[in-house]
Amino acid sequence: MTGVSASEFGDTARRLLSERFNRTTAWNGQTDFSETYRAVAELGWTQLTLPESLGGMGQSFEALASIYLEMGRALSPIPLMASMAAVDALTLPGMIESSISALFEMIGSGDIRVAIAFVGRSDAVVDDVASGEAVVSASLKGVADAHGATHLLLLPQQPGDGPALLVDLHQPAVASTPVEMWDRSRRPSDIELRRAPARIVSSSDAAAELASKTARAHLDLAVACDSLGGTQQALDESVAYMTTRHQFNRPIGSFQALKHRAADLKVRFELASALLQRATAAYTDRISDWGRLAAQARLLATRLYSQMGEEMVQFHGGIGVTWEHDCHRFLKRAKLNELGGESPFDLADRIATTI
Amino acid sequence: MDTSTRGSNTLREEVRSWLVDNVPLDWRARQDGANVDGYVQAQREWLARLVQAGYATPHWPTGWPGGGRSLEDQVAIFEEMARADAPRMSLFFVSLYHAAMTLVEWGTEAQKQRHLHQILRGEVWCQGFSEPNAGSDLASLRTRAERRGDRYVVNGQKIWSTLAHFADWCLLLVRTDGSGAKQAGITFLLMDMKSKGVEARPIRQITGDEEFAEIFLTDVEIPVENLVGKENEGWRVAQTTLASERGLTLVELSQRLLRALDKLKVESQQLGRPLDGQWRRGIVDLCSRVEGLRAMISQATARRIAGEDRPGDASITKLAYTGILRDFVNLGLAINGESAQRCTPYTLGAGYETGNWMFDFMNSYQWSVAGGSNEIQRTLIAERVLGMPREKLS
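Predict the joint structure of the above. Result:
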């Protein structure tokens, strides 16, 4: 099968992920991936899209997207997305941290890892706003990529929901509790902020709004990439199984009842890939409706991955419902990609406001 | 790469301004379902205008009027036509694409000279391929042709021939040898529809329309000079015919789908009550899929322009389109409720923007059944693209 994106970064990432990381590690009791995170930081992944002026590699988002695809293929547990989305948001003009190279150097080295939460007025209480500082109280459920994160970037849910805030998670006013999920390759945290000091990092409401839109689009695309990488791998493995598994003296993949469903998945995969490719290009150059396209790409890709995961189990029959086989690992990750954070209904309603 | 955003800009502007002056404002009114003569007349006038402007034949080779345009330019013309809501050229589609491209590649000089000029003047062609017992399995066709001196004598029956009851000529597949492999004994002929023994009977479809016809052939004599390619080698010629529109229809149709979605958005707001959440999500779903479809078609076209076609591209886009179209018309039906169940006028030759949701719904089967059913496409994708084991076929 031809790849979704055959960029050099993707090829390197695929090789590294298959050589160094076993996709079942997260399922065999390992919960802390800080070392793995440092390892990919050393490989330069965390500096990839950071501007050269801030010590980064200045690559386009497309390069990072091809890594996200490979991480999806490999069911990688590396919590990379939120920190990379934070880089895109924090380096925008109008963001106070945008020129602080020390912060970005530490993100690049993997010493700082940033989780992101989008909060509305009712979710967080922000007081004592003065000279670039504030105090925040909030109870946040299931913050993605938060386990092992050093900082939390709070972004306004809606325009006007307040400034962008950066909270140091290593302080007494913060309680961060990792949550075990059905998808063990992901480990979000519940975060309690009890009058936690925070830095205001946006210079205006407009800057906070753009940072929010940027981070959201980045995460939409990242989850879409992860989903299509996973779909591609799951489809490849399903086709391979149906080609070798014999019943009634013939490969089961010769039965129309199975091959037609595989073909339908391939059609949906090509459609979602085409949209993702267009959306990725739009985000990279911030052209046309980049925010809408990213959300639409997420909608199609996550729904497809979920369908693919369900079919993968069914295609594999008995072996597909065993813990030993990887089918359920794809299915569980697909379900979390589709249902985590924002429900598909909320995602559709978010898109509805843009069309 | 998005073909709609690069190149051809001058051509696009030229086509756009031509369309402003030339799309007849009353074309929908003149092509309503009750008025078949009006439809034929309007199609003829529209063809004449397009030919004069050189926009009917951008896919013809250099040297022919309007011909020699790049694929990129052809895409631009199709997209602009759809964007301007110009009538589709349904009556002449087989002449301009299937007949012309087959003649260009396989026809004798005499055949080209005789027909290509006439096609520009409005000669209507139909396809005599499918038979009652040779649909998805086309190569099993049984209409017999016997060579007698300088003519073939043909007996048999053809079906699903688009607008054959209006056609002047027919691209005909016949069996001249039944002894070997089924693909080996097929011959490709050009048949004058006015020949003795030809009877075209329109088939009334579930839309109530008569777009297809059966063709009954009884001792029809066809001169040997109307042979295309060699005797018994017609299967290869037929592949050219089938490939002739090269996916451009979908470039146009996906663009029209986008327009139709805009109409549905407006329509749903005009219903005078707040839009139901489920409907709104239905519209979001379709907008997203149409966006994906357009990206997919534009990327596939870009690959074709670069000479990097992938096997199965055509099947994949067709399957994607038929699924989206069916869901789209079903949503239109749901939103419009009982009012869409009333018999109201519709516009012929308008694709699925006829203004009548039930017509469009019934007509959507044309895409999932005709031109290789969805099931045939799925088998093709599974076997040729995914490399899954073949079924045992006879």
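The interface with chain A takes residues 2, 265, 277, 280-281, 283-285, 287-289, 291-293, 295-296, 298-299, 310, 316, 319-320, 323, 375, 377-383, 385-392 of chain B (CB under 8 Å).
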